[in-house]
Design brief:
Structural class: mainly beta
Strand content: 35-45%
Shape: elongated
CATH topology: Immunoglobulin-like
Number of domains: 1
Radius of gyration: 19 Å
Helix content: 10-25%
CATH architecture: Sandwich
Distance between the termini: 68 Å
Largest sheet: 6 strands, mixed
CATH class: Mainly Beta
Length: 157
């Protein structure tokens, strides 16, 4: 019985490791590069499988599988204080199969006030981080780790 459990454990572990070896690219785009002080802006994140085999990833949901970060001209991160979600553990239906070359996308609208105060006039660097981890109620193997997007500039006039 113990031998069977050890073999099953090894098989499951190898499946998880294969999932985590998947190659991902994470891209961030803005709907506009310049906004007036107090205006809203929209982000789009794109997660692409750049590897050679299919694996599972978490669905793209802000504050669950990715975060948006804004940095001022001094490269200091501005804390996000917009609405914070509460959630239960993720389950298998939160996974998306990602074939080689395939992408999933998500769009999110932000108010400049989501970062504590209205962003003052100036240039801001924005990026996104896609992240997954163990500890959810998911039993199907999926990619685990984090990947950072490109930087984009938002100009507040």
């Amino acid at each position: 019985m113990v031998a069977i459990l050890l073999v099953l454990s090894a098989v499951i572990l190898s499946l998880w490791e294969k999932q985590s070896d998947g190659e991902l690219d994470f891209t961030l785009k803005l709907d506009k590069e310049q906004v007036q002080k107090g205006d809203d802006f929209q982000t789009q994140v794109i997660l692409t499988n750049t590897g050679n085999y299919t694996f599972n990833v978490w669905e793209l949901k802000h504050q669950i599988s990715y975060d948006i970060h804004i940095y001022d001209s001094d490269e200091s991160r501005i804390k996000y204080v917009g609405g914070v979600i509460q959630r239960i553990q993720l389950e298998n239906d939160f996974l998306r199969k990602l074939n080689p070359g395939e992408s999933i996308k998500s769009t999110k609208e932000f108010e400049t006030e989501d970062w504590g105060t209205t962003l003052d006039r100036g240039n801001y660097t924005i990026n996104a981080v896609y992240h997954t981890h163990f500890g959810e109620n998911i039993w199907i193997p999926y990619w685990i780790g984090s990947v950072e997007s490109n930087n984009v500039t938002l100009v507040v006039k």
